[in-house]
Design a protein that fits this description.
Layout: H1 3-25, H2 32-37, H3 44-55, H4 59-71, H5 76-101, H6 108-116, H7 119-152, H8 156-205, H9 208-218, H10 231-248, H11 250-253, H12 262-293, H13 303-311, H14 314-351, H15 358-381, H16 387-411, H17 417-436, H18 445-463, H19 469-476
Helix pairs in contact: 1-8, 1-14, 3-8, 3-12, 3-14, 4-12, 4-16, 5-10, 5-12, 6-7, 7-8, 7-14, 7-15, 7-16, 8-12, 8-14, 8-15, 9-12, 10-16, 12-13, 14-15, 16-17, 16-18, 17-18
Length: about 475
């Protein structure tokens, strides 16, 4: 049996399991709410699996290993940012968001509407989600296709099309429940497989200390967490883009709306924080070993698949290929579902005021998932940029647009719809401006984008009328 055939068997087996889950869970999707929130039936372990798998994507494994290969230990700041973001979400956001689910909110745009009472703001939030998540989907497909194409010796184009068709099929059938079950399976395979190959890689170079000694010999500057390739601005930028970016994405925050209870979602986040921290440390090891063994690698995004193929036997390599597929699909499915709900339910139905039936909202959400998946696929086929760099730009834009109106809305009663809208538009404009200025001082544009968004939120809110007492009392004084 050839290595290629072994890889194909593992991939097909994994796909069959996920497709079967979608088919089984299809009968539980009877309306838009069950499709979008799983009827709020996501328990602690499913929730933890979904959070872990959604946080860990192609940028987390293919992109992160490649980024570490090129930057060294300075890349560890992105790990710090991701862990920080889990605690921001856990201690500042999900408890309050989950409370709104008990009062009918199905999505983050629903929560924003409940807080600010503005249909225009809900529409702006919905369209922003759709646009950013089309890019998000494209990035995930890029990472998956590069890995699968490498192992199966098929074209990049074929790998992308097969992956998207498969993902769309089980989301269309099972909605959030299918996403939750498949994500939990993906988390186990992805995290477990990455840990094992990291230890194999360490053994290959003689252990942790030997790895760093060899790295110092190959690329001395990469041994330092603060190095000449970026210095302190790089550390701050990486921590900010992942810390704020992860804390802003509706795909992550929206998972709280499908949880069984506020306590269950907090427990899920605690478990996920532990496994995400372990996973990212393993990717740091893999990227470092890759630099030691293959210092002249041209395409750094190929670091992980090359390591797997060099260090493991074909059977275990097949498992790792499935692990990459698992992690990428687990993020892609959540993002697609969130974007589909934003377009079909939040924008076309609620914002435009069509008053569609629940069955119509379900159909619109499903068709929106398909449409967004197709557009994301087309972008991925163009194969733009390095995966992690492209994803960092996307996360930065999300942080600049979403973070301020959500966090201020949850905690500052004086925040109003005018402040929220101006912060979204101004934050994004400032983000783009900082990019055009070529990132002065070496700082990531998310820092400037969020700073401008904060100033606009406070200034505009104070200069315009306060949100009505009826809305504020409705949002802030509920008790469960």
């Amino acid at each position: 049996m050839t290595d290629r055939l072994i890889y194909i068997i593992f991939l097909l087996g994994f796909m069959a399991i996920m497709f079967t889950n979608g088919l089984i869970l299809k009968k539980k999707v009877t309306n838009a709410k069950s499709f979008i929130t799983g009827n709020q039936n996501i328990g602690v372990l499913l929730g933890a699996g979904m959070f872990v798998a959604t946080f860990l994507s192609s940028s987390s494994i293919t992109g992160q290993v490649g980024y570490v290969h090129g930057v060294g230990w300075a890349a560890y700041s992105s790990i710090l940012g991701t862990v920080i973001s889990i605690f921001i979400v856990g201690y500042l956001m999900v408890d309050k968001l989950r409370e709104q689910a008990d009062y009918g909110c199905e999505t983050i745009p629903d929560v924003v509407y409940a807080r600010y009472g503005s249909n225009a703001l809900r529409g702006l939030m919905s369209i922003s989600i759709v646009i950013l998540y089309i890019v998000f989907v494209a990035v995930e497909l890029m990472g998956l296709a590069k890995t699968i194409a490498y192992f199966l010796d098929i074209s990049y184009t074929v790998a992308i099309i097969i992956s998207m068709l498969f993902t769309l099929s089980y989301i269309y059938m099972g909605g959030l429940l299918a996403v939750a079950y498949n994500d939990s399976i993906s988390a186990i395979i992805g995290v477990g497989g990455t840990i094992v190959v990291a230890f194999i890689a360490l053994a290959k170079v003689g252990g942790f200390t030997a790895m760093n000694i060899q790295l110092a010999e190959v690329k001395p500057d990469m041994i330092y967490t603060i190095n000449s390739s970026g210095g302190i601005p790089l550390i701050i930028s990486l921590a900010a883009v992942w810390g704020i970016g992860n804390s802003s994405h509706p795909a992550y925050l929206g998972q709280a709306l499908g949880a069984k209870s506020r306590k269950s979602i907090l427990r899920s986040l605690l478990i996920s924080a532990i496994f995400v921290s372990i996973f990212y440390f393993m990717t740091q090891i893999l990227g470092t070993v890759s630099q030691v063994l293959n210092p002249d690698l041209v395409d750094v995004d190929a670091s992980f698949p090359i390591l797997v193929k060099e260090l493991t036997n074909p059977v275990f390599a097949g498992v790792l290929v499935a692990a990459v597929l698992a992690l990428v699909m687990s993020t892609t499915d959540t993002v697609l579902l969130t974007a589909g709900a934003a377009l079909g339910s939040d924008f076309l139905s609620k914002t435009l005021g069509k008053n569609y039936s629940d069955e119509k909202r379900l159909a619109l959400s499903r068709m929106s998932v398909i449409g967004i998946g197709i557009i994301g696929t087309i972008i991925a086929l163009l194969n733009p940029s390095q995966i992690l760099i492209f994803q960092m730009l996307n996360y930065g834009a999300a942080g600049s647009v979403f973070f301020v109106p959500i966090i201020f809305g949850l905690y500052w009663k004086r925040a109003n719809k005018e402040g929220a809208i101006s912060s979204m538009i101004g934050g994004f404009g400032a983000y783009i401006l900082w990019i055009l200025l070529k990132q002065p001082f070496g700082l990531h544009p998310i820092l400037f984008g969020v700073a401008v968004a904060v100033v606009l939120m406070i200034t505009v809110s104070l200069l315009t009328p306060q949100t009505s007492d009826e809305i504020l009392n409705h949002f802030f004084k509920r008790k469960i």
